[in-house]
Amino acid sequence: MAQINAFFEMLHQYGGSDLHLTSGSQPLLRLRGQLQKVKFKPFEHDELKALLYEITPEAKVKEFEETGDVDFAHEVPGLARYRVNFFMQHRGIAAVFREIPQEIMTVEQLGLPERLRDLAMLNKGLVLVTGPTGSGKSTTLAAIIDHANKNRRDHILTVEDPIEFVHQSQGCLVNQREVGRHTQSFKAALRGALREDPDIILVGEMRDLETITLALEAAETGHLVFSTLHTQSAVKTIDRIIEVFPEEGQAQVRTSLAESLRAVVSQTLFKRIDNKGRVAAQEILMAIPSVRNLIREGKTHQLPSVLQTGRDQGMQTLDDEIVRLIKEGIISPEDGLAQAQNKEKISALTKEEPR
User: Fold this and answer.
1) CATH code for the domain in which residue 206 is found
2) Were 245 and a residue from 174, 179, 190, 249 both cysteine, which residue would form a disulfide, CB within 3.0 to 4.6 Å?
3) CA 97, 99, 102: angle at the middle one, nearest 5?
């Protein structure tokens, strides 16, 4: 058994999300969103390097030593999978491990809006799940894909870097490809995907112009495409996609996005105060005709007002979800106020001054 497994077991036992191992520092666990030190001596560079290399594929060791950072997935049978990143810093080698549970939780188990199950059953189009790093995007997407896997009879193809949640084929055939192992890049995999008869395509992240272009093309040609972006709100997500393109191509991409977009789910994680763990709050923008028109006409600044009045169409604002979570005693008013977009609205509820 690899020596590092003792730290994985500790992370799992305490219900943490991340393990940080850094030269010159004690190990740290991220518990309920905050880093906590482990009672262990600080690592020396060579000591930590040996510990990490014990579980690292040879090709990834070579890549790390050539570039100074590397990503891959690691699995401890019977425990969990981990999304791994190694990087060099001024005291030496460092690593972060994000635990990926072996069991995929359902939309219901996660307490997510029922509307997300409907997204799994769409025939075609683009669905985006967005939020900052560590906001649970992968967990939410896994629950949506799991619902499709159980309730459809289709071909699901994922392209990830690395593969996180592992889906066993159930009602659907599921093929999962990892960038660097099974394909050279997101771009290469997406070009190939259109010849592999998929009904649903999951793109781990829309990182660059070409990946975004290919994802839009797949959605426009009759596929249901899911992907993620590191953006803070539904409206900023749309603006971000358009701004990636050169100015002379933005009118065309507005038209393409207006035609293919089905929904944007933007989420933020909060520490629970009613029990252990964290809870996600979502902002949901559905691509109803008025939303499509505003995207096409370059009037995305008007989308917040559509969000606020679109509850009957399955929409919700982040602030409304924050209000609900505070009123139900699930999150603290302080945390809600810190993440709110309209701080005056939350401040009135919490009787605190906006910061």
Assistant:
1) 3.40.50.300
2) 249
3) 145
